[in-house]
Write a structure and sequence with these properties.
The complex is a heterodimer of chains A (179) and B (309).
Chain A lengths: L2 E7 H19 L5 E6 L3 H16 L5 E4 L29 E9 L3 H11 L6 E11 L10 E7 L5 E5 L9 E6 L1
Chain B lengths: L16 H18 L13 E6 L5 H12 L3 E6 L11 H9 L5 E6 L4 H8 L3 E7 L5 H15 L6 E5 L6 H12 L3 E5 L15 E3 L2 H7 L2 E4 L15 H8 L3 H6 L5 E3 L12 H4 L6 H20 L5
Parallel strand pairs in B: 1-2, 1-3, 3-4, 5-6, 5-8, 6-7, 8-9
The chains are: A alpha/beta (179), B alpha/beta (309).
């Protein structure tokens, strides 16, 4: 039997993304020296939503890029083999404040590989992490988010399902399930 | 499809269209890596790769070695001219001695057709054919097709003329397989003595008149006259070959088509191609060399996925 409960519906997701944007503005003011980098695949959807919101609030365009971590992963041979996806970072991150954006923080390995990838575009002044869902007590590596939509207690067999309209779903829903 | 079917890359003949496209898509990603300030990823840091060359090479060897270093692999280079092969050690013994030192992948060039196939049957490590005699040179064909795709939009429907010494060319055979799988039409052009007798069985056009070939094609891939493989005389003199089959600006100006010029290198300037053509804006010869690194990174990365750690 599957136990499934909803973490986010569209309304709650909009409110949380809005809150995360204001937290970012609180710290980064007018984003003069800050860039956003979304992680493939689903971090990109959140990057786009956050960027859109920030552009609206600040009335200006913020530098952003996307990063695929496949070539930096340490587990890509032991798991299902991923196809490398696009990386597009059209600027150097030297002396910039970088905010990494992803949907779910689980073991921390993706974020570790992302940090290694970002360092190939220069030496950032600071790196922060923004995630929508933080699965507590499941980390393999000591990585903690700077900004977080929701913290949940999970066990390894739990699954967090992210269903967004960008992926072809009818409406935004994020679920936690356990079989 | 996320990985290649075989542990080896021995030729284009047994690659599927899907596999070729996977290599191209992966090479696109590595081209992006090569444009970064730090052009390196750690993907193959757990692998040791041996470049085993029983024949001379500049581009291929350098390109493979750079690709390996960009992927963070450990690299050892072997060249037969300064090795114990000169003392009579057999091919399999040589390879097994290299492998026992925990080498995971072999990139091999050999003057005998089928040498990498023989090795691949006898060892567990991945084997990449970097040219076996007059047989195949798969990574060259992949980078040629990839460059055509990049520079002209797509390979499908394009007319490609491969011009020159077809008989002694491994680039020609691999290119025929690769271009046809990708949907291009292929014509071979050269003197009859340098075109294999039954090659038309591969569904290619054959033409002896260079002007007609150039009037037909969108892309001309010009091959080198391989004097080192020619034991007999296949044409009276280099001067005569150059007069009848050399591509120069005057010849290109006389036909009313914009042709893309390719050459796998090394170029014999003034023999099969003149400098004003090799260095013209229609030439994508240096793009081929540049793309070679990304293609070889893609091939080695994809083959490494078939290996357990």
């Amino acid at each position: 039997m599957t136990n499934k409960s909803r973490l986010f519906n569209k309304k709650r997701l909009d409110i949380t993304i809005n809150r995360l944007c204001h937290q970012l503005i609180e710290k980064h003011k007018n984003f003069e020296n800050t860039v956003l980098i979304g992680l493939q695949p689903r971090g990109i959807y959140f990057l786009n939503r956050i960027e859109k919101n920030l552009n609206r609030i600040l009335g200006k365009k913020i530098d952003s890029g996307i990063l695929d971590t496949t070539f930096y992963r340490d587990d890509f041979r032991s798991k299902e083999i991923p196809k490398a996806k696009e990386t597009l970072i059209p600027f150097l991150v030297d002396e910039k404040k970088v905010v990494i954006i992803d949907d779910v923080l689980f073991t921390g390995r993706t974020v570790r590989s992302a940090m290694e990838g970002i360092m190939n575009f220069g030496r950032p002044k600071k790196v922060e992490l923004l995630v929508l869902v933080d699965r507590k007590y499941s980390r393999d590596i000591p990585v903690e988010p700077t900004y977080c939509g929701i913290k949940i207690n999970t066990i390894t067999s739990d699954r967090v399902e992210v269903n967004l309209v960008e992926q072809g779903f009818k409406e935004d829903n994020i679920w936690i399930s356990n079989e | 499809m996320n990985k290649l079917k075989s542990k080896d890359l021995l030729g284009i003949k047994n690659l599927s269209l899907e596999e070729i496209n996977l290599i191209f898509e992966t090479a696109d990603k590595f081209k992006e890596v090569l444009s970064r300030p730090i052009k390196k990823v750690p993907s193959l840091r757990h692998l040791t790769i041996a470049n085993v060359f029983f024949e001379n090479s500049t581009r291929t060897k350098l390109s493979f070695e750079l690709a390996q270093k960009r992927l963070s692999a450990d690299v050892v280079n072997f060249s037969s001219s300064v090795s114990s092969v000169k003392k009579g050690e057999s091919l399999l013994d040589t390879i097994n001695n290299i492998l026992v030192m925990k080498v995971d992948m072999i990139v091999m060039r050999h003057p005998n057709p089928g040498a990498p196939h023989f090795i691949s049957k006898n060892i567990d490590a991945s084997v990449i054919n970097a040219g076996d005699g007059t047989h195949e040179h798969p990574t060259q064909a992949l980078l040629d097709s990839y460059t055509i795709r990049e520079k002209t939009g797509k390979v499908k429907g394009k007319r490609i003329a491969i011009i020159g010494d077809i008989t002694h060319s491994r680039v020609a055979l691999s290119n025929i397989y690769s271009l046809q799988k990708l949907g291009a039409e292929v014509m071979l052009c050269g003197p009859s003595t340098l075109i294999p007798k039954h090659i038309s069985n591969l569904n290619v056009k054959v033409e002896n008149d260079i002007k007609k070939a150039l009037e037909w094609c969108d892309v001309a891939n010009v091959l080198r006259i391989q004097l080192e493989r020619q034991k007999n005389k296949f044409f009276p003199s280099l001067r005569e070959y150059s007069l009848y089959y050399g591509i120069n600006k005057r010849l290109l100006d006389s036909i009313n088509r914009n042709i893309t010029i390719m050459h796998p290198g090394p170029i014999n300037r003034g023999v099969e191609i003149s400098s004003d053509v090799a260095d013209s804006k229609n030439s994508i010869i240096l793009d081929q060399v540049e793309n070679g690194v990304a293609i070889r990174m893609a091939v080695m990365y994809l083959l490494s996925l078939n290996k357990n750690r």
